[in-house]
Structure formats: C-alpha cells, structure tokens
Amino acid sequence: MKCISPISLCFLLCLCAFQSVSSQNAITPPRGWNSYDSFSWIISEEEYLQNANIVSQKLLVHGYEYAVVDFLWYRSLKGEKNSIGFDVIDEWGRMLPDPERWSSSRGGRGFSDVAKKVHNMSLKFGIHLMAGISTQAFNNNTPILDTITGQPYMESGRVWYAKDIGLPSRACKWMDKGFMAINTTTGAGKAFLRSIYELYASWGVDFVKLDCVFGEDLDLGEITTVSEILNGFRNPIVFSLSPGVNATPQMAKRVISLVNIYRVTKDDWDKWPAILSHFNVSRDFSASNLIGAKGLKGSSWPDLDMLPFGWITDPDAHEGPHRFTNLTQDEQRTQMTLWCMAKSPIMYGGDLRNIDQQTYDLITNPTLLEINSFSSKNQEFPHITTLHDVKMEGYNVTKLQFTYSMALTECIDPKASGWFSEKHNQSLERICYKNPKQDQEEPFCVNKRELQMASLNQRYIQSAHMWELKSNGTLVNGDSGLCATVEYLLAEGYPNGIRSWIATGRTGEIYVAFFNLNSEKATISANIVDLAIVDPSRRKLRLCEGTETWSRTIIKTNDTFSAEVASHGSALFVLHCH
C-alpha cells in the first residue's frame, strides 16, 4: 500500500480548498476595469488590450482581476448609440465583434483571441450585452439556433424565427431603435438565449454585464433564463445586471439568488450630485441585509456603478477619453470610501494609460480595499454630531420644494400604496397618489384618460387599459406586474449635512467613516460607546486607539473622537477598541 506523506496530504487538501473557493462566483465584491467611462462604446482591440495589460501589471496585485468591454462592441463606428442597421450579427441573430475595431475577430473567431490574451495576463474577460434581441435581427427575421441539433429550432412542427420571439412593444427605453425584449415563456425564446451564451462561453467569457433588464426595465423572465443557462456551465461566469433606475430592495430580493451583481442606481458620472444620490440607496440596501447575500454559484452584491476617475469621456459620446474627471480629490475620496464601506463592486472607469499617481494611490489604498473585500456588519452609523451638537440621523435639505416623477416598484413595497380615484371638475375622473410620509405636499394626480402619457418608461404605458387600480390602493401595470409609485424629488437644493458608516474588520477592528456633504468644512464627532451598534457584546467599550486614514492622525480616546472634514470630503478611522 502506498502512503501519502503529511506534506503531500496538506498540499492536496489546500489545493482542493482553493479549487472549491475559486470555482465560486464573487465571494467578495468583484473588482476590475470597465471601458465605458473612458471610451463610451467606440473602444478598439488595441486600446482595450493596452488597458488590460496595465490592469495586469499594476492593479491585479490589488485584486483588480476583470477587464470588461462595455456596450456596442458589435456596432460599426458609422452608426450611433441608438441607431439601427450597423451591427455585426451572424446568421442566427447573435452579436459578433465589429471587425474594423476588433481585427482578431475576423474569420468567425469572435473574442476568442482577445480572451486568450486576457487570460494569459492572469485576468478575467468580460463583455456587455443588451437584453433581448436586436431590432436588426428581428427585421431580418433570422432563424433561432438549436444548439443541441445544430439546426434551426423546431417546435410544433415548424421552424422558429426572430419575429416569433421578439416583442417590439417592449423596446429598450434608452436604445429603442436597437433592442427589444423577447418572449422567454417559449421554447424558442429560451433556445435563442442559450445559443447566445453558449457562443460567448466558448470564446472564454468570464463576466457578463446584461443591460436594460433591471430597475424600471425589470425582466425577471430573461434574468431567470440566463441565470439557469449560466448555472449549467462548467466554468463560472459572473452575472451582472444594469442599470438600476428606481431599483428597490424588494425588487432585488427577487433576483439576488440568480445573479452576482445588480446595479441599484442610474449611471454614475463625475458630478457631486451623482455621488449624493448614492447615500440613501446604499443605506437602504444595507439595511435590507442584501450586501453579500447568496447569489449565482456564490454571492451577490448591490452595485453603485463604476468610478469615473482619471482620464475619461462623456456619457454616450462618440469620442474616446479627452478630459480629466470633474470630481475634486475630496469628492473622489468620498466616493471611493462610500463604495468600499457599502461593499460595492469596484470597477475603475478611467483610461489606465493616463492614470495619475494620486488616482492610482486612491484606488489601491490598502485600507479601503481591505474594507471592501473583508469587512462585515457594514451599515450607516447614525450616532454622529457636529460642533453645534445637532443630531444628523438622516440628511438636511436647504429647501423643501418638491417635484414629482412616476416610477415602478414591487407591489409589496409600502411606497406602492396610496393611489385613489376621484372626480375632478364634476365629470373628469383622475387617479391620485398621496404618500402619508409627505403630508406637507398636495397629492400627485393625473387624468385617467391621460395616464398613458405619464412620465414612465414607455414600454409600460402603451395604453390605459394596462393599468388597474386595486382596492388596497395600488396601481398595477398589467404588462410588467409591477406597481406605480411617485418619487418626491427635491426641486431645489441637494441633500446636505453629514453622514457616517461603520463596519468591523477581520481581526476585530472597527471602521468608521465620516462624510461631510455640506458646502463648508465641518467638525464631525462620535462617542465610542455608540460603536457597539456593530457588536452589542462590546457595549462597555472603555478605550479606542487607532488612526485616521487620510490625515494619519493618531487616535486614543475613552470618550469621543472627531475630525475636521473638508466640504464634500470624508474621514476614515481604523479603531481597536476594548
């Protein structure tokens, strides 16, 4: 009988454990580079590989392992973002790389050569996809491929085509000329999606960002079908959803087990108000215990979007990187700190060929990346004060003037209730919404016959008969199954005041971040007794020692700790308390 030495046995056990972990998806928030913020949709193979090479050489050691090609890699530069007839598709209606920009794709090779080069850099290769089917394939009425037989898909004695599964009435809101949803209740619809993902998996794709499928564009049928397909693949593929306009925790709970990443905001760009909009969202998803929930073959993470730092372009521009971010150094620190405290995936968006040292130091800050990957109990921390001893548990606003915007949400969301019908001007019936939490505001009303003209995603408001007012005060959309709500938006002014987050580390440390959202500097304080919010067993804390990350100030206190925080800036404490 042959014996295995203790050292060999230990090696085998470690190898098995490593393979078990590495075969899982997104155990920590994924980290990498995405081409959108710097190249919009016009990136070339050379530009992509140059950036991927820098990820490999300078960022991989810091956990950045994905290099993602964002949208329209299949569109000729002769087209525009929302145009038709310029996409490269095969005989089955599947998108192929534009050979003018991706020369290695010629001869039916797709992204195989690019993926191989990325893998040789020890990175993982990602692509962006639009949900559904392209309008170009629909108009051409391409046949559906049955990947089992290699022949056109047949069911009920006939061949199925693009026009049998495409739904023109459900075109993507922001690319209505380019893509439409498909009927995933049919065998042909499922076969079409399987043919897509089997092709891209054969190229070596490790990451898929599926767009126009979540938030107000929610398509649970496609998300579920794609998830089932990816779950059947031997090699794991991280599954990401985008965008997240009007996404809610209730909505997220329907998809978290199916995906690994899901956007919870609209696109984020380099403007201070865009950063502000993420504070409430990140708080709500954390409070719903959604950070790091069980996902597709691993974990799932609420996504606050890419980091628009460094050398970038403009939203949806037909132009590559040409300007430096508009965010100040303090604003970039605030964004990076919030993203890491909320454990969002970290996808850098700037052109890495022109990254400056200050930006590089920020996105590779070891304390922030440790928090992002390994901290726990991450949540907003309400127990902070200013010098004037004013409790700031939410945020203040400079003016309380509201405007309104209709949105869709899950029908179980409390914000879905509050709809009622009333007579107006004796004969005209209208539908109104009143949020009890907004008592100072008049109800939002819309004439019943004009409901289809409300400011909602057009795919949901084709005709008035699609809406039904229920006795429980919800207004149900018959097409999507979601309910209408009304968002009260500040007409003037943005949130200001102060915010804070707290989390615990792997070795018992406590992380506390202060955020100053005001236009002037502020001194923010907290008491160490309140830090027990993350560990009630340590309620009698007597002493905390540590440092503030940005100023490198040494902290030692048995009472309060504080920091003078610049306008739009942040402070980050690493504390050891007992």
UniProtKB/TrEMBL annotation:
Positions of transmembrane segments: none
Pfam family, one: Melibiase_C
Gene Ontology biological process terms from the UniProt entry: carbohydrate metabolic process
Leader peptide range in chain numbering: 1-23
Keywords tagged on the record: Disulfide bond, Glycosidase, Hydrolase, Signal
The Alpha galactosidase C-terminal domain, residue ranges: 498-575
Group of enzyme by EC: hydrolase
Any one GO molecular function term: alpha-galactosidase activity
Coiled coil: none
InterPro entries tied to this protein: Aldolase_TIM, GH, Glyco_hydro_27, Glyco_hydro_b, Melibiase_C
EC number: 3.2.1.22
Reactions accelerated catalytically: Hydrolysis of terminal, non-reducing alpha-D-galactose residues in alpha-D-galactosides, including galactose oligosaccharides, galactomannans and galactolipids
PANTHER family per the UniProt record, alphabetical: ALPHA-GALACTOSIDASE (PTHR11452:SF79), ALPHA-GALACTOSIDASE/ALPHA-N-ACETYLGALACTOSAMINIDASE (PTHR11452)
Similarity remark: Belongs to the glycosyl hydrolase 27 family.
Protein's name in the database: Alpha-galactosidase
Lineage: Eukaryota, Viridiplantae, Streptophyta, Embryophyta, Tracheophyta
